[in-house]
């Protein structure tokens, strides 16, 4: 991206995915229904915000 070969990418939030999985498991254990698909938002990575993902 810094060299210009890639315009954008996405950051898949592993911590958010883990938290979503735990929340779903707790809901199931409690007898609650859950959606068959749980969407964890991703973050668009651009040249402008790339530095914040390098920290």
What does this structure look like?
By secondary structure, the protein is of the alpha+beta class. It has one domain (9-53). 36% of the residues lie in helices and 11% in strands. It contains two helices and two strands, in the order E-H-E-H. It has helices at 14-29, 50-53; strands spanning 9-11, 43-45. A two-stranded antiparallel ribbon has the order 1-2. The longest helix is centred in the middle third of the chain and has 16 residues, at 14-29. It is elongated, with a radius of gyration of 16 Å. The two termini are 16 Å apart. This is Periplasmic binding protein domain-containing protein. It comes from Litchfieldella anticariensis (strain DSM 16096 / CECT 5854 / CIP 108499 / LMG 22089 / FP35) (Halomonas anticariensis).
Radius of gyration: 16 Å
Residue-averaged pLDDT, rounded? 93
Order of helices and strands: EHEH
The overall number of domains is: 1
Count of individual beta strands: 2
Structural class: alpha+beta
- What shape does the CA trace take? elongated
Total of DSSP H or I helical runs spanning 4+ residues: 2
DSSP strand (E) fraction?
Answer: 5-15%
Organism: Litchfieldella anticariensis (strain DSM 16096 / CECT 5854 / CIP 108499 / LMG 22089 / FP35) (Halomonas anticariensis)
InterPro entries: Peripla_BP_I (IPR028082)
Protein name: Periplasmic binding protein domain-containing protein
């Amino acid at each position: 991206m810094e060299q210009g070969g890639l315009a954008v990418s996405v950051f898949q939030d592993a911590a958010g995915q883990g938290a979503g999985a735990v929340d779903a498991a707790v809901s199931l254990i409690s007898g609650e229904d859950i959606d068959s698909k749980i969407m964890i938002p991703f973050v668009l990575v651009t040249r402008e915000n790339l530095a914040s993902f390098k920290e």
